[in-house]
Amino acid sequence: MKAIPYIFLFIFACQSNAQVADFDSVNFQRTDSIALAWKDENLTNLPALVDKLTANLTTDVTRFRAIYRWVCGNIANDYNLYAKNMRKRQRFKDDSLKLKTWNNRFKKIAFQKLIEDNKTICTGYAYLLKELSELADIDCEIVHGYARVSTTNMERLDAPNHSWNAVKLQGKWYLCDPTWASGLPNPETTRFEFQYNDGFFLTNPELFAINHYPVDKKWLLVDPTKHTFKNFLEAPVVYGKAYAMSSIPLAPTKMHNTLRKNEKISFHYKLLKPAKKEDISLLIDNGNSSKKIHPTSTTIDDQSLTLDYKFEKTGFYDVHLFIGTDLISTYTFRVKS
Amino acid sequence: MKTRLPFTQKKGFSRLGVMIILMTASLAFHPIYGQSSEVSATQTAQKERIIKGLISDSYGPLESANVVLKGTKIGAVTDSKGEFTFPKALKTGDILLISYLGYETEEVKIEANTSFIKTILSEGLIEFVGALNTDKPYKSKKPKH
Questions:
Q1: Strands B116-120 and B52-57
Q2: Phi, psi (5° rounding) for residue A204?
């Protein structure tokens, strides 16, 4: 009986490896070009769409990839729809009856929008991916939960705000986020633009857990005692580029940090994709000005990045870690005398 | 069987090995007998026929619902009246999968006397939410000095 916790630990340890690297030998170029070839298809006949996307593919991973890539490249994020839903949900959050009525109304609007305009919000992406995968006989689940980005108002993160997917391939569950993979708002117009990010496909669950927390913890796919909801709320901000570069922030574990002048702070990352030492930099912003530095202490050994820094002046700093021009993560430091 | 026995002899399998192969082979053949008897029963009971149907939800007919013969790629889509005519003649025991985005998928079995299918799809339990991603750098609201 004593062995049971170890068995669980073993299961978690194995699952933490469930990531796209398991399929390193698979070339997704062909599947992606199939998805591209059916670009103008609509959602009126889903079985026919699935057939077009998967007919010439033999493995579940390539069939799923073709479906996923099609969804990410053809379904747009509808910000107006998102804003309308968020406003209503916020207004009715303490009135479960009104919230339910709104949900039912919104569901109709959202599905209509998805079918007619190929536009939706997260749950629509997750729902469509599940529906299409199931038509291809692939187990795929919608995962509801909490998600954080740089602009998330943490005080309002009191109810699930995002949906993503878990998919079973070769007997193992993997995570993906088709919404965030599909694109981003244009920084000037704030309109949605397709910009595929491959980092959200069968992502390392350790990285995923930093800004995705499922309502049902089994979909963490990592040990929930090491990745608690509190850890998630306190974690540093990670950006899409962290996913694209498969860079996992390990330390500091918190977004907001306090330390003394000249006290050493160590940054530690796991880099699943190779990076050069000279490309690593910190952008330090004291509220009035910012400077970019390349700490001399930076080392990259195997997949492990470490670098140290000391603040010489008191103050409040936003610290952004970059790999090349890619913004990976952000922390804040209150430096006392 | 004919192709398998010489193979096992060549490799010099033990008696146990031959028994395992025989048992496996008998398992493999079993469903075939089951199927063929079913087909003959079906043929006598009912000929293949064209099935029509009406798909709706609790509010009324559903346009663009998908109807697919299970295990195949053959299917139909409902028209603006929620009606469909299945393109292939179906036989008793065939199963149609009826799906529509936002609704639970239904399986409908073709019975001996089925010629018209009326199905009401129920809405899936789903709540819509959405968090947007952004690559906008985080910026602290600074306390005033």
A1: parallel
A2: -55, 125
A332 touches chain B (CB under 8 A): yes
Same domain, B56 and B111: yes
Q: How far apart are CA A253 and CA A301, in angstroms?
A: 20
CATH classification code of A9-235: 3.10.620
Q: Do B101 and A332 touch (CB under 8 A)?
A: no
Asked if ipTM goes beyond 0.90, one says no
- Into how many domains does chain B fold? 2
What is A249-336's CATH superfamily? Immunoglobulins (2.60.40.10)
Please give the angle made by the CA atoms of A154, A157 and A163, to the nearest 5 degrees: 125
Portions of chain A given CATH number 3.10.620: 9-235
In this predicted model, what pLDDT tens digit does every residue of A307-322 receive, in sequence order?
Answer: 999 999 999 999 999 9
What span, in angstroms and rounded, lies between the C-alpha atoms of A249 and A251?
A: 6
Kindly indicate the confidence band of residue A54, based on its pLDDT and cuts at 50, 70 and 90. very high
* Residues B57, B37 share a domain: no
> From CA B77, how far away is CA A298, in angstroms rounded?
60
Looking at chain A, the domain(s) classified CATH 2.60.40.10 span 249-336
Tokens matching residue B114: 């089925």
Structural tokens at position B106:
């239904």
A184 touches chain B (CB under 8 A): yes
Pairing of strands A183-185, A192-194: antiparallel
- Residues from chain B contacting residue A115 (CB–CB below 8 Å): 64, 101
Closest partner CB to A318 (pick from B133, B135, B139): B139
